[in-house]
Amino acid sequence: MKWIWVVLLSLLSFQILAEEEEQYSQTEMLDRPLMERYILDELKALRMDQQDLERRLIIQITDRELDVADKSLNYSNITVTYFFYIIAGVASLVALVGWQSLKEIKHNTKEMADKRLNEITMSYEKKFGALERDLKRKTRIITENNREIEIINEVHNLWLRAQSAQTPEQQIETYDEILKIRPGDLEALTHKADAAMEINEYHWALSICNRVLEVDDSNGHALYQRACAYSRLGAEEQAINDLQLAIESSNSLRELAADETDFESLHGNPRFDALIETTDPV
């Protein structure tokens, strides 16, 4: 009998469990639509909050833009008003001072400008004047140098012509042309005196040598030519004195004097012989 009760109890237990499971399934099926409805309501509420937030932001931005526009308009109004006041003040000042003051200002400004321009003009005139004088001086120097070069070339050609001349007369003519270009040229005068000695114009040669020695009393060539002239004229002591001075100025004239035909009359004179034979100590 006990096992029958056990079986009955088991069956009852199974039935109770089946009923509970069926009841639970029905409850779960009933609760599912409620959850979906809750989510949909939350989404709707969230969307409405977002729309409300967007509307409030738009209102705030619009208010701020209106506030900025109002301030800008107010600033522009104030600026225009102040500018009008400034113009009115300047106009009043001009009207108060009068047009005469403006004329005086214009006149004074013109005088100051003219004065400054005159100062600048004078300054540049002085600078240009100095520059012009300097240019003229340099131009004159260049011209003189060019002329001197021309003279040097011309004199050089004349010296070449004198060296190639066949007769003393031709040489004298050439030396005269040199002296026309360069008056008082000592070298040309001494060579002219030499040519005068060759044509036996002793007094003329003596006069030329004296002209040279008046300028340069130690000119060895002139002293030598004058000694030759004195020797030809018979003034032996004066000839020996000039020859001694000439040898002292240029020792090379000693050998030339030993073979000089103009000194033939002096050979045998002790002073002359001692003069041409003396050698400088080593």
UniProtKB/TrEMBL annotation:
It comes from Vibrio rumoiensis 1S-45. NCBIfam families: TPR_END_plus. Residues 1-18 form the signal peptide. This is Uncharacterized protein. The keyword Transport does not apply. InterPro entries: TPR-like_helical_dom_sf, TPR_rpt, Ycf3. The chain crosses the membrane at residues 82-102. Keywords: Membrane, Repeat, Signal, TPR repeat, Transmembrane, Transmembrane helix. It comes from the Bacteria. Gene3D superfamilies: Tetratricopeptide repeat domain.
